[in-house]
Amino acid sequence: MKMDRTIRGAAAVGQLTDVSAWEAELILNMRLWQDGPRGQEQVWNAYATAFGPDAGRAELRTFERLLCLIDTHMLRPLVRHSVACRCIGSDEAVFANMVRFATHGDLHEASLVASLLVRPAFAEQIAIQAAQVGTAVSELTRSHSTARDGLSDAPVTFH
Questions:
Q1: What confidence category does residue 8 fall into, taking pLDDT thresholds of 50, 70 and 90?
Q2: C-alpha to C-alpha distance for 25 and 43, rounded to whole angstroms
Q3: Concatenated DSSP letters for 43-67?
Q4: Three-class SS state of 88
Q5: CA 11/CA 92 separation, integer angstroms
Q6: Cβ within 8 Å of residue 62, ≥6 positions away
Q7: Which of 16, 44, 47, 57 is 20–30 Å from 132 (CA)?
Q8: From CA 59, how far away is CA 39, in angstroms rounded?
């Protein structure tokens, strides 16, 4: 993915293959969800496969709620890389780090990281939601991992 260096949040800061499987899955699920109905269907299928239809629907709603909260209270539009891109953009890294902190019970740190994406008044609420999402994605990754499918064979794109 070729990025204009002036776009805040777009800078490549890592590779999906360099982070844990659940963090890569989280980033890919965010990309797929924001891509539209086809991507959302892929995310739904992963959740339904991992948790079953009823629990999967509940976990997916939590994921969707987190993305909607961020979208509603964001400081500026989030920048993401394409679904097929191996790179992790800086906004995507901030999102993954926020979820990781929250999942490990570090809600204060998760709130601070969230304040890089959203207005501070909503950072704590988003961090709490992120903890639930991180736990679900971690469990989802144990039975299914979309994020690493084919990445090792994908060409590397330098920005």
A1: low
A2: 10
A3: HHHHHHHHH-HHHHHHHHHHHHHHH
A4: strand
A5: 10
A6: 129, 132, 133, 136
A7: 16
A8: 16
Return the residue matching tokens 């736990």: 135
- Please answer whether residues 131 and 110 qualify as being in contact, where contact means their C-beta atoms are separated by less than 8 angstroms: yes
The dihedrals phi and psi of 83, each to the nearest 5 degrees, come to -55, -40
Most distant CA pair in the chain, distance: 43
Give the whole-angstrom CA distance, residue 144 versus residue 13. Answer: 25
Domain boundaries, the chain: 14-150
Sign of CA pseudo-dihedral 101, 131, 148, 151: negative
The separation between CA 44 and the C-alpha centre of its own chain, rounded to angstroms, equals: 14
End-to-end Cα separation, the chain, in angstroms: 7
Please enumerate in sequence order all residues whose Cβ is within 8 A of that of 97, keeping only pairs 6 or more positions apart, or say none: 113
Q: Which residue in the block uniquely carries the two structure tokens 């207005």? A: 119
For position 1, what pLDDT does the model report? 44
Contact 39, 83 (CB under 8 A): yes
Give CA–CA dist 24/18, Å, rounded.
9
pLDDT band at 75 (very low <50, low <70, confident <90, very high): very high
Which amino acid would we find at residue 6? Answer: T
